[in-house]
């Protein structure tokens, strides 16, 4: 089965082909440079960029791969309405012209299924942890296509906090990898308070405020690395506490990490330590598959098609679609 995946939920445009569950080719174009000057993603600008980029990317894919496709998989939510609608419109056009099936994909499910690009199916019950610029979610993944969202942030996502603090520090959007790089030369750590919240729910705006307070006390750029380390430790330790709680409550067998922030080495190490402590398996995609990409959409479309799920041309986009 050959699946063409399309991703346009935020500021990355991607198209990929998966054949019988293996990634064959993938192209993507990031809008980071365009949004940098605004300090974050401007929805209207993002839509226009997708509009400009989709067809050229599709032409590149057609040059690389000429076999007939069977299914078009497209992200239909959650995400920016304008961006989602452009990807969906493009996907419907391909489905019509090629006379193939279409399947709508949930972006968060795709982040979890990105693990299938490099690993195997996890052992259930699995704990899915999605950490990105728009989401921080804890998902109980208890069977093939069976997900339950059990914890999420009630305000800022972890990536959002990192990007906002990064802006204060004069780091351009998105700030995650630069903040991680800075922290690698830290000689100490500026401690930032951690999340104190019962249950699986999370809130990171308090950490953001505490971090800004600490940042304003800094008088020299020499302290930036220690600050960057303190910020990440605060955010990721808070998340780790929740992860441990779910492991203890649900007899979890494996952890799957996904989303742009999952590229972060400090977070990966913390989760690895937890897995060692509890004797669990761990799957984290390579950094390129943690960030938004179409390969994860194609593999998710493949998985859904195997499960007998498909849509028709009345498929609509769902900006607030929950997993
Ligand atoms: O999944 P993604 O590509 O897009 C969304 O769906 O949001 O995630 C982007 C987020 C940004 O907030 C970016 O700063 C963060 O991922 N990020 C990182 C790292 N690389 C990207 N955060 C921390 N450490 C990194 N190495
Ligand atoms: Zn994402």
TrEMBL record:
GO molecular function, one term: iron ion binding
Cofactor(s) essential for the protein: Fe(2+)
InterPro entries the UniProt entry points to: ATPase_NBD, Gcp-like_dom, KAE1/TsaD, TsaD
One GO term of the biological process aspect: tRNA threonylcarbamoyladenosine modification
Residue ranges constituting the Gcp-like domain according to the UniProt record: 23-298
Keyword entries, A-Z: Acyltransferase, Cytoplasm, Hydrolase, Iron, Metal-binding, Transferase, tRNA processing
Compartments, record wording: Cytoplasm
Highest taxon of the lineage: Bacteria
Purpose: Required for the formation of a threonylcarbamoyl group on adenosine at position 37 (t(6)A37) in tRNAs that read codons beginning with adenine. Is involved in the transfer of the threonylcarbamoyl moiety of threonylcarbamoyl-AMP (TC-AMP) to the N6 group of A37, together with TsaE and TsaB. TsaD likely plays a direct catalytic role in this reaction.
Name the UniProt record assigns to this protein: tRNA N6-adenosine threonylcarbamoyltransferase
